[in-house]
Amino acid sequence: MKALCWHGKKDIRYDTVPDPKIEHPRDAVIKVSSCAICGSDLHLFDGFMPGMQSGDIMGHEFMGEVVEVGSENKKLKVGDRVVVPFTIICGECDQCRRGNYSVCERTNRNAKLADKAFGHTTAGLFGYTHLTGGYPGGQAEYVRVPYADVAPVKVPDGLTDEQVLFLGDIFPTGWQAAVACDIQPTDTVAIWGAGPVGQMAVRSALLLGAKQVVVIDRVAERLAMARAGGAITINFDEESVLDRLGELTGGKGPEKCIDAVGMESHATRSIDSLYDRAKQAVMLESDRPHVLREMIYVCRPAGILSIPGVYGGLVDKLPFGALMNKGLTVRTGQTHVNRWTDDLLRRIQEGQIDPSFVITHTVGLEDGPAMYKTFRDKEDGCIKVVMKPGGVRA
Ligand code: NAD
Ligand code: ZN
Ligand code: ZN
Predict the structure, then answer these.
(1) Per-10-residue mean pLDDT for the chain, 394 residues long?
(2) How many Å lie between the centroid of ligand 1 and the Cα of residue 194?
(3) d(C-alpha 158, C-alpha 229), whole Å
(4) Whose Cα sits closest to atom 27 in ligand 1?
(5) Which among 20, 48, 116, 195 has most CB atoms closer than 10 A?
(6) Structural domains in the chain?
(7) Residue 271, pLDDT score
(8) CB of residue 171 inside a 6 A radius of ligand 1
(9) Going by C-beta distance under 8 Å and a sequence separation of 6 or more, which residues neighbour residue 318?
(10) Given ligand 1 and candidates 261, 276, 292, 386, which is best to mutate, with the most ligand atoms within 8 Å of its CB?
(11) Nearest ligand by distance to the CA of 139
């Protein structure tokens, strides 16, 4: 079959690889109808996440039709249409029973590596480094889904791929980021990053009743999309983030701050970002935490920092004294996707939200290598790429 494979920094190829097979009686194999490129894939593309190996199949946001089911899988049957969450979960361990799916204790088949790096293992993830199991991803014609009797979400009739695809990642991610803010009707929620996750966080924060949502980025079309969703925007290339957030909150700062940028933040007019770039380049720091520093500084005392943005390792010069003395709460994590999917699917069906608004590019899987670059460099107005392994229908 064909798949998008990682071969090193900025080197994704459309390769021919062996077809996946059922390896365990709970597995299923699905034929991918749609898959997407996520901002998290860019951290792999840019070579900032450790634990990738040449030839790894990319992709953790995908859906399709079940074509083969293992003998013990009582949930799925051939022909079912499913969205597959990016977190692989067993459904039975202590963490899964508490709904803490992204830290499932059993699905990371390289748990020892994760134990060493993080102190404990986290869940297996599709297409996302050998630290999280090294599972082949869904930017492919077919994918083996382990523990397929737990996580896959069956798609009701009448919904398009585009409406439901993002239930596997960015929609619950933006939603969980907003829920973590414990939003009150008087709250200003400031969101750094107007990429796909930031866009979902805007809609989620407003659905959850925020007084105002402010989005910070510097890419015009992304800021425009955030405004279309009801946000006030700040272009950090053109204006001072601290001054504008102060003005919008009567000088008090936003109560809730969401980092939808992660470890590759950019900054202009800031010494700390030059320092981070230099340290990252010589491997003395794995992540660039400019946004974290800005959030700690600007957040109203007793506020909440919600961090869906992905970090891989070590950050430097984090003002922990400010965080502590201001009494800020930090909430973060890979998304517990299945905690939210029932509720979010219902909201899509009821027409409260249609996540397909974020799609700017739909292409065949063979165009994937070029689209990684287009998405990363924000060329051609690119905000979210959907790929069709079966080719794009006219
Ligand atoms: P993206 O790369 O398209 O978006 C990031 C945006 O941040 C860009 O628009 C960029 O211009 C902006 N940005 C950069 N520096 C900034 C700064 N200093 N201030 C404000 N904005 C800045 O990616 P995305 O798909 O939206 O993903 C965002 C983050 O969320 C990534 O780190 C990704 O890995 C992470 N993510 C996490 C989960 C999870 O489960 N926690 C799931 C999906 C994605
Ligand atoms: Zn993702
Ligand atoms: Zn589990």
Answers:
(1) 98 98 98 98 93 97 98 98 98 98 98 94 97 97 98 98 98 98 98 98 98 98 98 97 98 98 85 82 85 97 98 91 98 98 98 98 98 98 97 80
(2) 7
(3) 25
(4) 39
(5) 195
(6) 2-169+335-388 (3.90.180.10), 171-332 (3.40.50.720)
(7) 77
(8) no
(9) 289, 292, 293, 296
(10) 261
(11) 2
